[in-house]
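Z., the sequence and structure:
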Amino acid sequence: MDDFQQKFDKAILDYASKNQYGVSRIPYHTHNGTDSPLVHPTSSDINARSYGTGVTSIVTGTPTKLTLQSNSFNNGVTWDSTNNRLQIITAGQYLITALVTYTNTTDAKGYQTLVYKNGGEIMAANMMASAAGGAVSPVSTDIQTLATNDYLELYTFHNAGVNQTVGSTTEQTYLAIAKV
């Protein structure tokens, strides 16, 4: 490609990549004296999302492991259906999101979504119900460093004084991870 063609192509890209105020929409970096757009991956190749099915009754005052019976997707992570947990194959940093929805709450009581790694709590989200008979969905999100063979489990806890119901459809209760 000749010098004129390179300059022409860069001018077109520069024009197309700027907003109405002339501010670049595409970040650039310089490498070996040439400008090129930064390329960011749009998704992780290693990811998983598991959720429960049916409805689960949770005993008051006891951390309870939830049974995640189905997977929305599972790429590069082992799903251990016997123990209801995700097992890491590739070490690294992972974005972890966990959600548990209580569908018939007790007023002014606490509800938690917990993530356990290798049997110990590493993440928690807490919500207090503002009315009886409502729903709460504490969601916990964090980036954690995970090693090969680490495993993740979804737990929940409440102090309502009576057993509570957890909805386990795909959008109500889940554990999702993506390597970042």
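The helical segments are 3-16. The domain at 47-179 is CATH 2.60.120.40 (Jelly Rolls).

Let me know what you think.
H.
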